[in-house]
């Protein structure tokens, strides 16, 4: 009987050692899987990749999101020691994504407005552009006044949506403002005759004018200083000051100028 008790005790001890060893191995394997990731600094950037040359996908070549904004974000991320992961999100969902903290910052040709500043913080302006009316060659639309009674397309939640609404009210145009999630959708609607014209940023419009000779564009002279584009962050984020410091350096050392020349072919910061 004594022998059986000793044998049972021995088997229990061996089993316990085996279990402890297995747990130790499992922990080590987990450590191996997470090793290298604990100290890895990653920032998730939100953008609406339908706005060339700011951010877009050249589907014929790859699924990579590239553009002026992407280069800026990755350059600053590298200087601050971060890897930047880019997430494609509809423009009207970018601010909510920051609010629910599913992304760390937004760079997507976004203009600071009073409404947006209630929800997010903005960096300094890094690029200034103007707005254009894009229409077809046979439309006879050349000025804002020519939009009277017309159907005008804009990107949902964009500064151009606000501009179109304001123009309609202040000039009593009686025009219908139609909104779509993506710029290509807006242009397609116009090309098929559903919209009479589209309002978009001039640097983006240039790409469509170059690729489609049936389209023409006219600058909207507002008589006011253009607001420009800035980077958006979560409220109170420490990244705002960090990015601002790097933006300032890029503007002073000529790095921003090189990116502007690369993507736009000239200086558009003034």
Give an account of the 3D structure.
With 270 residues, this protein is α/β, with parallel strands linked by helices. It has nine helices and 13 strands. Helix 5 links the parallel strand 9 and strand 10. Helix 2 packs across helix 8. The longest helix is centred in the N-terminal third of the chain and has 33 residues. The termini are far apart.
Main beta-sheet strand count, sense and barrel state: 5 strands, mixed
* Beta-strand percentage range: 15-25%
Estimated radius of gyration: 27 Å
Number of strands: 13
List the uncertain runs: 2-7, 19-38, 266-270
Shape: globular
Helix segment tally:
9
End-to-end Cα distance: 96 Å
User: Which strand order does the major sheet show?
Assistant: 5-1-6-13-7
**How would you state the average pLDDT, rounded?**
86
Percent range of helical residues:
40-55%
Structural class call reads: alpha/beta
N-to-C series of helices and strands: HEEEEHEHEHEEEHEHEHEEHH
Concise structural overview:
The protein has helices at residues 2-34, 68-80, 94-99, 114-117, 159-170, 183-191, 202-211, 239-253, 255-264; strands at residues 42-47, 50-51, 55-57, 65-66, 83-88, 105-110, 120-122, 131-136, 151-155, 176-180, 197-201, 215-219, 230-234.
